[in-house]
Give the backbone structure.
Amino acid sequence: MHDAIFTKTGLHHFHVGAVNAINPRRRTGRLVFADGTDAPERMRTLMIGHSFGGLILYAASSGPLIEVLTAQEDLIDLPPLHGARSSKRRYEETERIADMIALVNPAFEASRFEALYRVANEHTHSCYEPPLLMSITSETDQATGVAFPAGRFINTLFERPTSSPEQATAIKQTPGHMTAYITHVLHGNTASPSTQQTNEALHGTDAVCGNWTPARKLLTMEGDELASAVKLNRSLELKQSTEFITQLNASGDDNKPWTRTFCGGAQLETVKQDGANNAQTLVWNIRADENIINGHNDVMNPALLDFVRQMFRDTEIVPGLTSQCMSR
């Protein structure tokens, strides 16, 4: 028993160390590729962790994320030094440790998530920014929703909350099943497969983005047909996302709750918690329905891939829209 615990703990620390070792190398690579006007397109980074892989990735990234978010709050009211950019400009452009971090059905205690969640909710900004970290948990995930808290119940028999009654629940539940920490809910396209096929035949592939092709259909294509569909998808997704971000920035209300519709019909909406509506937070804790991800291991669900890809594209779109937003 002790050997098993030691091995699990040792492997956890080994993999956290491995992820931590990637971060400075990734930063160096991005600086090299972004240096100079003739440099090639900058290196882009999407980190994804599933289940206990989500635990490893979160353990390695949560500290740097908290540092980034607190630095933004600390710097915003300070004057620029030695002719540097304005404090607002530095604040808006605080460096990300990765373009985006995504956790899928992460298997760790919500109490580990609390500090980052609280810091992110105190963050304010004048323009839409893509999340630094996006955790997505299926509402039908029995492994993290039932098995995990059952195991934690035994492991925490002699533990008592030290800060609040909420902590008693947080030490047993994963973030995605801790209702108090949910920032967004994600609904997939609820049309049945037969209805979707009929719509494709009569009206193109998608009612939201015209001739956009879902990932499940892209997987059946090859060669020029695939290349053409991917190119069209990129164009349609760019238009859909740019319109949403531009309208959100133009509203002038940074705290206004919003609902976003993606190509493919998925809808993401903010959730109000404790008086904060999570419209500005850069750490998203998303509860997804079974149309996006059904159960614990459905990580290659085409609807999930479509959503993550379109969200990741935001990190490419937003820099071009920031100047418009900051000038309002």
Summary: The CA atoms of residues 24 and 38 lie 24 Å apart. The chain is about 50% helix and 10% strand. The longest helix spans residues 2-33.
